[in-house]
Design a protein that fits this description.
3 helices, 95% helix
Length: 94
Amino acid sequence: MRHVRFILLSLALASVAVLAGLLYMYVGNYRHLRSPFSLGLIVFAALFVVENLAAVYFYVLMSQDFGAPVAVPMLALNAVELVGFSTLFYVSWR
C-alpha cells in the first residue's frame, strides 16, 4: 500500500510540475500576444494546479481512513491526467 501511495503522490506532483511549465509558456505567450485565448489557457492551467494540490492534500488527509479503495482509482486518474498534461506540454512547446 505504501508503494501505491508514493506513486500516487509522485504522479500528482509530476502533474503540478508539468502544469508549472505550461503556465510559464502561457504567461510568456500572453505577455507577447495579449490574447484572450492565452489568458484562458493561464486560468485553465492554474485551476488544474489547484486541483492537483488539493488532491494531494486530501489524499494525505484521508488515506488513513480509506486506503486502497480510494488509492487505486486515484492512481489511474492521476496517471491518465499526467499523460494528458504531458501531451499538452509537448504540443505547446513545439
